[in-house]
């Protein structure tokens, strides 16, 4: 999603805003790993409701914070501080729970590269971790520092400043994005392109939509069609698709007519579909009616030759071949023979399978250890030709 400038109108969460030209925002912070903040809603029956500072490793409650309307714990303690809201004003607490920067601002964001953008008297500026104003509150909006530059808005236009407050890219754009990469997209007269950190236009501002570079390629839209360009602006995957998304895990989603698929960086189809099953770190994939499994980097863990697969669990994955399910290990070796009508993932050393008319539990050697008394109401961790 496109990173938008923080303003009073962005209300409580006001960090991102959907639009035609962007991808997910990458936070550049300095998190502290020893403690974190959690929220307890008192549903456990023995703790009072509220925010607690806890030890990251042990989850031991160290401090119960006083009442705050909101504690922005998403990015942890950045520069040792966390932003909080009380009486509709914002400030920062330290790792002991003490107010370190007065709760006086209309809005603040987490520290990024040592500075936090804030809003005071309907103007945006920047403060350091001591609460000192380092960039005056003179802007209509401001965004966190990334790569030494921050996106700010003045007189309805967007430009970039450095940490001294010097304007390094003039206020000439109708919209723009943070420098989470060496290039960032900008908009002028409803057209999009890319600039570098000197302000040089590196990809012409001529596209109807763009998305940030991913895997060295950027998804662009021109005359109603999508394709991909490299950092020189060269079209490397033709602008022929009716829809497309940025590259992730070595592939990009594209749609041509009524056909959807995932392509590699050469434009060749790699998968027909990817089944995202968060928070798992493996993904079931489909190509020409066969299923396999990839990791978060796109590496194939299970070759696409099976009629169905499950995710790996406790070192084993269920796979279906010639109409029967069995289990393989991470090397692809068959551990439990293909003889079941269906199979589920292992949990606590046992898995549910169907053998003949019977639904049974088996252990990791394939031995029957019990009978499933009734049909499970939960969703099965299975994809095969009966499901898709």
Overall geometry: flat
- Helix percentage: under 10%
Report the biggest beta sheet as strand number plus sense, adding barrel if it closes: 5 strands, antiparallel
What fraction strand? Answer: over 45%
Number of helices: 0
Averaged pLDDT: 88
Q: Structural class of the secondary structure composition?
A: mainly beta
Strand order of the largest sheet: 39-38-37-36-44
Q: How many strands in all?
A: 44
Radius of gyration: 26 Å
Can you tell me about this structure?
The chain has 388 residues and is mainly beta. The protein contains no helices and 44 strands. The protein is flat, with a radius of gyration of 26 Å.
Protein topology:
Layout: E1 2-3, E2 16-17, E3 31-32, E4 35-40, E5 50-55, E6 61-64, E7 70-71, E8 77-78, E9 82-86, E10 89-93, E11 99-105, E12 107-108, E13 116-120, E14 123-127, E15 133-139, E16 141-142, E17 150-154, E18 157-161, E19 167-173, E20 175-176, E21 184-188, E22 191-195, E23 201-207, E24 209-210, E25 218-222, E26 225-229, E27 235-241, E28 243-244, E29 252-256, E30 259-263, E31 269-271, E32 273-275, E33 282-287, E34 290-295, E35 300-306, E36 308-309, E37 317-321, E38 324-328, E39 334-340, E40 342-343, E41 351-355, E42 358-362, E43 368-371, E44 383-384
Antiparallel strand pairs: 1-2, 3-8, 4-5, 5-6, 7-9, 9-10, 10-11, 12-13, 13-14, 14-15, 16-17, 17-18, 18-19, 20-21, 21-22, 22-23, 24-25, 25-26, 26-27, 28-29, 29-30, 30-31, 32-33, 33-34, 34-35, 36-37, 36-44, 37-38, 38-39, 40-41, 41-42, 42-43
